[in-house]
Design brief:
The chain is of the alpha/beta class. The protein has 26 helices and 13 strands. The strands form three sheets. Strands 3, 4, 5, 7, 8, 9, 10, 11 and 12 form a nine-stranded parallel β-sheet that branches. Strand 10, helix 19 and strand 11 form a beta-alpha-beta unit. Helix 8 runs antiparallel to helix 15. The protein is globular. The structure holds flavin mononucleotide (FMN). The site of flavin mononucleotide (FMN) has 25 residues, from helix 21.
Length: 682
């Protein structure tokens, strides 16, 4: 229930608000009925008049993206940048010693320390994030806080796990990584491994073309375009492939009529997901593959390895004893492409999130050893219940990816994204397009859940098409297929974010779910009141996942835990930004490149954060996600600045935290976060 906010006795900081007193202003309830945020009249102001800026001006303010560059242009610029004295060799930068680089004269980067220092911009305000941690800074001379470095630090402890080792990457590049568990499982389920591993990615595209659902896909900006453009792979074309897929289309692939003889432990069991597994040392020989299928990709599997699950295949995957995660009433930060990066998740952990999940990673890109995709699997040590999210179209691809990630990564559960609406994913037969293929979902879940002992979860939307809900038909079976939990985002793919999430339908689905399946509701949670209504109000919903609510106000986790609408001050919000920046510099680096990467992701996030309307400014609390804000000012200049929807103002905030932007800087947010009823990614 929306409550009326306490009266505010502050003086009117926005005299312009009183300008038009001839008309009776709408009441707060009328505004709410029109989905307009009921901001107290004292804080209203006329919309800012913005002249259309010239290209030159808007670029300077960072508001307009540059034209798209060609690949050649990119390559040329990259080469020029590498040759520039500003790109000091990492080894030289770290030590300050021009002879420290083992590549000597053949190194592509500059070794000229004096020239580098002569052009290096002044240090940024503040202390090096590594010095704060009393650790040596690996960026050495190139750190933008170099003046605050101290000698004699203890060797640094890396709090980030799940790196992609060079050796595993090489195995993947050479398509020599073996997948005994996935292959055996696919066979056991009567599915054909229609492609050789080598041809996997390309074949996926081919198969997708073949059985692509008949959908009209409106193109929108998405993140995956780049990462889905795979580097060239050797394709062994299998002419039987298309025929095969034709035969499979629409047919039940597996007979799953065998009843479950040995149910998994009840979801009432205790949580068991919060142990962080250290990444094992990579000692293996790529030439010799031992007979034991568990040892095929390395010579030794350390005793503490999480990948010790043996190839003991069973006809029904749920016979395998899975580890259990008790999702009940845990605050779950949703997977969020781009913005749900490791520093953001770390921040949410400090503010009360219990469960975190990595950004969606595409199976084919992981299988090809793409470093940028593997970066999405990184985990911080504070993420004590952590999931990785993958997305793929076919049982063999997904099962192999699960085996790969299970062998190489530390995580507590693995989530398969079957709700992603973006065209480039849907066109490949993955994401929400799977909602049109329940039999494919069945074989993906059966094959994948059987290759890992860790819980497998699935994230879906209500349906692909508006009005043709599908999720309810999945919940009754998906547990038997091997999933431990299902997250239901209460919207269809077609609908994107245009209406409120359908919680009645989510509840109907939850009613149909077997007792042991965790049902996680998702959509529009933006306050502790929303949370209580959906989680505490239903015994069948284990928990809710929070996405945009966390982006707009990451302190939502604190609010839920403390059951309050926090009237957070602009200073407190600024401190949260400072924490994010510190985590960002630790993650992306404190040299110029790291600073600018941190700025970029900060700006992406600020494009969401500006949608927060302070509690003390509202006539009715709590704020709802679908409310459009009128033009208003805050209680101080910083609060006003933080409410701005202008990219130039976000850039200004970034400059307060990370110094001046470089010359020629531009920024345009990837996600259209301020389009309240339009599609957003994910
Ligand atoms: C910027 C953005 C990125 C997203 N990225 C993902 C993603 O990588 N994987 C995923 O399953 N969902 C993704 N989603 C969808 C959210 O996880 C969530 O299902 C959706 O936003 C509905 O929840 P909400 O109403 O709380 O925002 C994304 C959403 C947004 C806004």
């Amino acid at each position: 229930m929306a409550a009326t906010a306490p009266a505010d006795d502050r003086p009117d900081p926005c005299p312009a608000a009183a300008a038009d007193s001839s008309q009776t202003p709408p009441t707060p309830d009328e505004l709410v009925a029109r989905a307009v945020a009921p901001v107290k009249s004292a804080f209203l102001r006329p919309p800012p008049v913005r002249d259309t800026p010239t290209n030159e001006e808007s670029r300077a303010s960072g508001a307009v993206p540059l034209e798209k560059k060609s690949k050649r242009q990119f390559r040329r610029e990259r080469k020029q940048e590498q040759e520039s004295v500003s790109r000091l060799c990492v080894a030289v930068g770290k030590t300050g010693n021009a002879d420290a680089c083992k590549y000597g004269a053949s190194c592509r980067f500059s070794h000229d320390v004096d020239a580098y220092l002569a052009q290096k911009p002044a240090d940024l305000e503040g202390t090096c994030p590594f010095t704060v941690l009393e650790q040596p800074c690996q960026y050495g001379l190139t750190c933008r806080f170099f003046g605050t470095h101290k000698d004699n630090h203890a060797p640094s402890e890396n709090h980030e796990i799940n790196p992609l080792s060079k050796d595993i990457q090489k195995l993947l590049w050479k398509t020599k990584y073996k997948f005994p568990r996935a292959s055996a499982q696919i066979k056991l389920l009567g599915l054909k491994e229609v492609v050789k591993i080598k041809a996997n990615a390309a074949a996926d595209d081919q198969r997708a073309e073949h059985d692509n659902p008949d959908v009209s896909c409106e193109m929108n900006g998405d993140d995956k375009t780049e990462s889905l453009c795979c580097p060239p792979v050797t394709v062994e074309h299998d002419s039987s492939l298309c025929e095969e897929m034709d035969k499979l289309a629409g047919e039940p692939l597996v007979d799953n009529s065998v009843p479950c003889p040995e149910p998994r432990a009840s979801k009432k069991s205790k949580v068991e997901g919060d142990e962080i597994h250290k990444n094992e040392a990579d000692t293996y020989d790529t030439k010799a593959y031992p007979e034991d299928p568990n040892l095929v990709n390395r010579l030794e599997v350390p005793s503490n390895s999480t990948s010790s699950c043996r190839v003991d295949l069973v006809a029904t995957p749920h016979l395998r004893e899975k580890k259990i995660i008790d999702f009940r009433e845990k605050l779950y930060l949703a997977p969020l492409t781009t913005v749900g990066n490791l520093p953001f998740r770390r921040l949410c952990k400090t503010l009360g999130a219990d469960i975190t999940c990595g950004e969606m990673a595409m199976c084919t890109n992981l299988m090809q050893g793409q470093a940028s995709e593997w970066a999405l699997l990184r985990r911080h040590s504070s993420e004590d219940i952590f999931g990785v999210q993958i997305c793929g179209a076919f049982p063999d691809t997904v099962a192999r990816t699960v085996e790969l990630v299970d062998n190489e990564c530390s995580f507590d559960f693995i989530d398969i994204n079957m709700g992603c609406p973006i065209d480039v994913v849907v066109n490949k037969g993955a994401g929400s397009s799977l909602l049109n293929k329940p039999m494919r979902i069945k074989s993906i879940v059966q094959a994948s859940s059987a290759v890992t002992e860790r819980p497998l979860t699935v994230k879906v939307r209500t349906a692909f098409f508006e009005g043709r809900n599908r999720a309810d038909s999945l919940v009754s079976d998906i547990y038997d297929w091997g999933a431990s939990a299902i997250t239901i985002h209460g919207r269809s793919r077609q609908q994107r974010y245009s209406k409120l999430a359908d919680w009645d339908y989510i509840n109907q689905c939850a009613q149909k779910a077997p007792d042991d399946l965790h049902v996680i509701g998702n959509g529009d949670i933006f306050s502790f009141t929303d949370w209580n209504r959906h989680v505490s109000g239903s015994s069948k919903i284990s928990t809710c996942m929070i996405a945009r609510g966390a982006l707009i106000k990451p302190w939502i986790f604190t609010e839920i835990k403390e059951e309050k609408d926090w009237d957070i001050t602009s200073g407190e919000r600024f401190n949260i930004l400072k924490d994010y920046v510190r985590f960002g510099l630790e993650h992306w680096g404190s040299d110029t490149k790291g600073v600018e990467t941190t700025r970029h992701f900060l700006l992406e996030w600020l494009s969401y954060m500006c949608r927060y309307i302070p509690v003390g400014l509202l006539d009715v609390v709590p704020q709802r996600l679908n409310w459009r804000p009128p033009s208003y000012c805050g209680r101080d200049d910083l609060e006003t600045l933080m409410a701005s929807e202008s990219a130039a103002d976000w850039v200004r905030i970034s400059e307060m935290l990370l110094g001046k932007v470089p010359e020629g800087f531009t920024f345009a947010p990837k996600h259209k976060s301020n389009a309240y009823d339009r599609a957003e990614n994910g």
